[in-house]
Amino acid sequence: MRGDGFRFGIMVGSPGCLPGGFARRGGYVTLEAIMAANLLNDVALLDELVGLLEVNDRRMPIARVGQEIFHLRNPGNAFFQGVVRRLVKGDPRFVVKDDGFIELLPDRREYRRLDQSEFVVVDLETTGLNPRWDRIIEIAAFKVVPDRRLSGHHLRWVIADEFSALINPQREIPQWITRFTGISNQMVARSPVFGEIADQLIEFIDAATIVAHNVRFDIGFINSEINRIYDKRLFNLRLCTLQLSRQLFPELPNHKLHTVAHYLGIEMEERHRARSDALAATRIFMHMLEQLKQRGLVTLVDVQEFRRQKISARVSDSIPR
Fold this sequence. Notes:
- Helix content is 39%, strand content 16%.
- It has helices spanning 31-38, 42-54, 62-70, 77-88, 175-181, 185-188, 194-205, 215-230, 241-248, 257-263, 274-294, 300-307; strands spanning 24-25, 28-29, 59-61, 94-96, 101-104, 119-126, 136-146, 157-166, 209-212, 238-240.
């Protein structure tokens, strides 16, 4: 399952502009209310913040960040300070300064060589599209590492380990999700809740680069679940096979997972189930690693720069595969 959000601006101080039930603190709208109203998760907001800082010498006034990112008008600087600090809490890429500025620090992890990197390719099934309101019902992940027996031109990547679990979301699974995934309330009734598998998942991912087909969706849900338990988030580096597909295979009519898999001759055992989709995404990613190597891309930052090259994105890729 995949989804992207839509956004609209709201003005602090206008009670009628917020959806019912969203809380205020000290007269101001909470960050959770902003993200819920904008239908965006914090991963998307952080990505937008990185992009904004990168084109502004990596340093900006927090008030301007709030206006650009959150599309809010006329709140005091103290409000922006609180919102931005909450957004970047725990993220080593950002520093919020006492002078009212925020800075983007260089991320040395991006200079790690691909042939010295570990990747974890993940896929989720969920009760819906919004990580603020919905829950994970199935997760699968495959660890991809360089084959240490080979090097140089002959280097290949291999699957080293896997993790998968059905998860009890502690709420009803909507019928349309059951039709979409085949996962019913009965199937997850005796499954662990996310908190019971969280430590195992965090240990499995460790410091690896997280990969997914529309990675914002997957990491947004994973971080929301982890944050509910531990009040923290994962800030691993990320790569998106959806975005890479647009660059590597521009001739495709769309870049949905099954389309890319079919194009590369990769069989999918069972669409819209986490393990099958994660395995397909893993095989797609391993194929992509070979192509990136052939293009002379050596480090993760090389791949990120390649990914950012101007492409013609298609609306049909946005909502779910």
